[in-house]
Amino acid sequence: MGSIIGLFFLGNIITNGTLSISMFPAQTAVDDAKQETPKASPFEEQEILWLARGVYSETKNEEEMRLIAWVIRNRVETKYRGTTYQEVLTSEKQFSGLHISSPQYKNNRSLGYDDTKNKDWRLALAVAKEVYTADESGRPFPKTVRHFYSPALTDATPEWAREENPYQNIAYLETPKPHFVFYNAIQ
């Protein structure tokens, strides 16, 4: 029987030439944000900051953040309710966590790059930067998907969604209702 020789190579174990076990957890948006990237302009930094505020105000789950960030980007790119991230996110009766009636309104609108102690906020910043700088090929759904809401968090279906078929749902086994529902081509 041959001897087994194991080598560590970039966090993986190679045994007899076969890559077998990863030693590190999957890379996340926070890890990606730590990598060197070109410096953003002051305008781009503000856009990324507002995008992060938007996703943070809606969810603390990374995958949900990513999809919501794409919805917000879709709105900006199609000039739906504004041409900047701040305009889109602060448009009347949109993004409840950034609405003055939200208990988290002041916190959500005041978060900045220096708020590094909040793990969920750091994640939101990383996801926002990832989506803001992403190539078109990374878009998870059409540019016309510009609406979503959370049936799990509200009892009433928004009027705009009542007669519409969802484009995509995010559901979890532990909740009876979808957590988020995304819609295409809502005017």
Layout of secondary structure:
Blueprint: E1 6-9, E2 12-15, E3 18-22, H1 29-34, H2 42-58, H3 62-77, H4 85-89, H5 105-110, H6 119-133, E4 145-149, E5 168-170, E6 180-184
Antiparallel strand pairs: 1-2, 2-3, 4-6, 5-6
Structural notes for this entry:
This protein is α+β, with helices and mostly antiparallel strands. It has a domain at 39-143. It is built from six helices and six strands. The strands form two sheets. It has a three-stranded antiparallel sheet with strand order 1-2-3, with no helix packed on it. The chain has a three-stranded antiparallel sheet with strand order 4-6-5, with helices on one face. The longest helix is centred in the N-terminal third of the chain and has 17 residues, at 42-58. The protein is globular. The model is unreliable at 1-26 (pLDDT under 50).
Write down the Rg: 20 Å
Strand order of the largest sheet: 1-2-3
Shape label: globular
Major sheet characteristics: 3 strands, antiparallel
Integer average pLDDT: 83
What does this entry show, briefly?
The chain has 187 residues and is of the alpha+beta class. The chain is built from 6 helices and 6 strands, in the order E-E-E-H-H-H-H-H-H-E-E-E. It has helices spanning 29-34, 42-58, 62-77, 85-89, 105-110, 119-133; strands at residues 6-9, 12-15, 18-22, 145-149, 168-170, 180-184.
